[in-house]
């Protein structure tokens, strides 16, 4: 299964993805976590290649904005793909971005927030409403449901 964790910069994607990966590993489940930040160019092409060429017997967690529909649609061709949309207000995203060591230009946050093509999400978690722990629990519960369906 491939779980794409997407949303605007500063929404909490990386926090959720990393904590979900840690929890799956603690349960002894094979998991691979890949972040869009791992690539400096051709980001979504390289994310796609990494997952497409990787093992099938693991849960893939893919962390990126995926704000363009074409990237979302390409990933859906990989088979059992679920989208988790992580949301937060623009103000929250900007504030969290300011606190990051690797902050992106604020204009970039505005652009992605404004131009975001929301996917047909299998799960949405609002990190203005939920703590990181609660968001992770929701993702894990959904993952268990998806696997048993």
Automatic annotation (TrEMBL):
Regions that span the bilayer: none
Molecular function GO terms recorded: ATP binding; kinase activity
Signal sequence, start to end: none
Pfam family, one: AAA_33
Protein's recorded name: Adenylylsulfate kinase
Organism field: Natronococcus amylolyticus DSM 10524
Organism phylogeny: Archaea, Methanobacteriati, Methanobacteriota, Stenosarchaea group, Halobacteria
